[in-house]
Design goal:
about 0% strand, about 500 residues, globular, 20 helices, mainly alpha
Length: about 500
């Protein structure tokens, strides 16, 4: 393995240890939150607390920008990482102030005049909104520090912070059962604590480990803003349009169907997030290597990593998606106890959306590394924003609540086609080679898994039999791993896995 590949492998292992723990804790947390709040308040929190989703999307975009420019600066012989870091700090401070002003004006106007909530819940909705806004602003200020740690490929620190935060969330949610009144407000306040914990932790780590890069210095802040802001604005445009699509769909569902359906939609989005993380974290671990190879002029090396990462992410996403789809109703029942209506259908469609989304892995890293993101962002934004009026028209004509997710799937597929075309003509990327190298093998695996699930359902062998259902989940998981290994991996990759296992066994003996 090349040195860069070894770092990707090491970072990936750390990321998945973190992911495994946070998913297990997150699933327990979601169940307890639903029980403590009830369906209506749970749906209300996910509508009003959408500013947190806005923060998540914006922070992901801005973290990508910060990490990209720090990585690029690290690749230069005369790079000044501290200068880029301080410029990013100033940009994020200004961004947090702008978001605070917009949220407390336009956002508050929507809460007061258009939000569809049960009578008597208006004050709770406003309280949750204020708390969420403060949390969002604190999180945005924290982004340069998180971006520096990612650029340094120090994923172990991030893993520790995320694990501690997930355990803290679970503990705080369990405390909800000791309260009788104002539970929604208490929950919103409790969730803000985890953001402040992250804020303190990231600042402390940067000061202790990367003080040279992160210390405040006022004599090197001239110039450099335009390039970073331009890149970030296009990146941010994509992120905002994504959150407008997701939060706009939440608002549309709330407007036409109420908070009970919002609860089902929120659960489906949680499932989507967990499985997305399963594949997406592998993509994140490869990002610094792709940027550094491109900045060093090794475009072929960057292409190789991007294609392999995309294929691996598709296979990883497939393992999670098809394992869940094998007995989705049963899994939801075990997880939640009381399952809101239409949750299963929403989850099924969001899982399909995960598979489509996984096909962008590697491509996004290449696009960001080139710095030529204008047309990519514009096509992305156009497709995602158009999804909302199309869904609105279909709802007006009596469509089922789940239709919005079908529109999203189609928009994502079109976006992927546009990305490959633009990459070929703007950056000279070998798009056809990417299709054959990244998509064909996972597609064969997916077809085989779909056939297996359909055969099992057609025979009805697992119907009303808990043991058979559990066995089927396990068989699907093992089958997906086996197919990914024998079909999804190339022969040299299988040999690498075999040698790794043999070496581990030999070292233990």
């Amino acid at each position: 393995m090349q040195e860069g590949d070894k770092r990707i492998a090491k970072n990936t292992i750390i990321v998945y240890i973190r992911l495994g723990i946070t998913i297990i804790v997150g699933l327990l947390t979601s169940r307890f939150v639903l029980q403590a709040l009830g369906e209506s308040d749970f749906g209300l929190y996910n509508v009003v607390g959408g500013v947190l989703a806005l923060f998540t999307c914006i922070s992901a975009s801005m973290t990508t920008t910060t990490t990209r420019f720090i990585n690029y600066e690290m690749g230069k012989p005369d790079g000044d990482v501290n200068r880029i870091f301080n410029i990013c700090v100033i940009i994020h401070l200004v961004a947090s102030v702008i978001i605070l002003i917009l949220a407390e004006t336009i956002g508050l106007y929507y809460i007061h005049h258009y939000l569809n909530v049960a009578p008597g819940k208006e004050a709770d909705a406003e309280f949750v909104f204020h708390i969420s806004t403060i949390v969002a602003c604190v999180g945005i200020i924290n982004i340069p520090y998180q971006g520096l740690i990612i650029a340094k490929e120090n994923f172990s620190f991030i893993a520790i912070i995320e694990i501690v935060n997930s355990l803290l969330k679970l503990l705080l949610v369990l405390l909800l059962f000791t309260f009788d009144n104002y539970i929604l407000r208490i929950y919103a306040a409790m969730m803000s604590i985890t953001t402040f914990v992250s804020f303190v932790a990231y600042h402390w780590i940067c000061k202790k480990r990367y003080n040279k890069e992160s210390h405040w210095k006022t004599d090197n802040l001239r110039g450099g803003y335009k390039q970073i802001i331009t890149f970030n604005n296009y990146n941010l445009l994509s992120a905002i349009c994504l959150i407008l699509r997701d939060q706009g769909s939440n608002i549309l569902i709330n407007f036409f169907f109420g908070t009970i359906v919002n609860a089902a939609y929120a659960i489906a989005k949680s499932v989507q997030q967990y499985v997305n993380n399963l594949a997406g974290n592998f993509d994140v671990a490869s990002g610094p290597q792709i940027v550094q190879k491109l900045s060093a002029g090794d475009f072929n090396g960057a292409e190789r990593i991007a294609q392999n990462i995309c294929r691996f992410c598709c296979l990883i996403a497939g393992v999670g998606v098809f394992t869940l789809l094998s007995e989705l109703d049963f899994i939801l029942q075990i997880w939640l106890g009381k399952v809101p209506q239409d949750t299963s259908l929403f989850c099924c469609l969001t899982l399909i959306l995960v598979l489509v989304g996984a096909t962008s892995s590697g491509l996004t890293q290449i696009i960001n590394a080139t710095g030529k993101i204008k047309w990519f962002s514009l096509q992305f934004a156009t497709l995602y924003i158009l999804s909302l009026p199309i869904s609105y028209i279909m709802y007006k004509n009596g469509a089922h609540p789940s239709i919005v997710l079908i529109v999203f799937i189609i928009a994502d597929l079109l976006s992927r086609c546009n990305q490959l075309i633009l990459l070929k003509y703007i950056a000279g990327y070998h798009s056809l080679k990417h299709i054959t190298g990244a998509y064909i093998r996972p597609l064969c695996v997916f077809i085989a898994l779909v056939a297996y699930i359909l055969i099992v359902r057609q025979t009805g062998i697992t119907a009303d039999n808990t043991i058979f259902k559990i066995a089927n989940i396990g068989i699907t998981f093992i089958l997906s791993l086996a197919l990914s290994y024998f079909i999804g991996l190339k022969s040299d990759e299988r040999a690498l896995v075999q040698n790794f296992i043999k070496n581990k066994i030999s070292s233990n003996n």
